[in-house]
Design a protein that fits this description.
By secondary structure, the protein is α/β, with parallel strands linked by helices. It contains 2 helices and 12 strands. The mean pLDDT is 93.
Length: 206
């Protein structure tokens, strides 16, 4: 296995032994269209790794850290994340459908055009992240904090934002139901009121 990268060798060993990938640090790894589905990662740190079009379907991540990684085009459908942190990562067009995030933090990440539909986010903090035109269709958000995030053009159809403070975020072009039910109980700034009025089809006159 000398020709294998560190992460490829770890994945092969995990599948062979039916054990998690545990207590490892992977730096500068590059994988393209790799099959990493249904693997379990515990206390793993990924640093400046590049995953392109990789399949993480049904994988589990516990206490994992991702730093400045590229996840563009990867599929994380039905994966489970507990107490994980992603910092400075890029995942344009990545698929996170039916993902469960329990605890954890997203910071300075670019996740434009990501698919987050039908997932569950619980006790998650998103700080200075970009979700331009992301899709949060029928996603359950519980105790989620949005801090200085860019949500322009994102779709929150049938996803309640009740109790969430969006006043420091960009929400122009947000896609919600015609009756704005998803925004009931959310906190917005006076300036954002004009954006919400436009979403409702009202003409704002200054």
């Amino acid at each position: 296995m000398d020709h294998l990268s560190a992460i490829e060798a770890a994945v092969l060993a995990a599948r062979r032994e039916e054990e998690p990938v545990r207590d490892r640090v992977f730096t500068g790894e590059a994988l393209t269209e790799a099959r990493l589905s249904r693997l379990e990662f515990q206390s793993v740190r990924f640093q400046r790794c590049r995953f392109t079009g990789c399949d993480f379907f049904g994988a589990s991540f516990y206490d994992c850290v991702w730093e400045e990684c590229s996840l563009s085009g990867c599929q994380f459908g039905e994966s489970f994340w507990k107490n994980c942190a992603l910092t400075g990562c890029k995942g344009e067009g990545a698929g996170f459908r039916a993902v469960r995030l329990k605890g954890g933090r997203l910071e300075d990440c670019i996740l434009d055009y990501g698919i987050f539909s039908q997932g569950v986010w619980e006790n998650v903090r998103a700080v200075r992240c970009r979700f331009l035109r992301g899709v949060f269709l029928e996603t359950r958000l519980k105790k989620v904090e949005w801090t200085q995030c860019r949500l322009s053009g994102a779709e929150f159809f049938r996803t309640s934002l009740k109790g969430m403070d969006l006043s420091g975020c960009e929400i122009d072009g947000l896609v919600v139901s015609q009756d704005l039910s998803e925004l009931r109980g959310a906190k917005i700034s006076p300036e954002q009121g004009a954006d919400i009025a436009r979403i409702a089809g009202l003409e704002v006159v200054f």
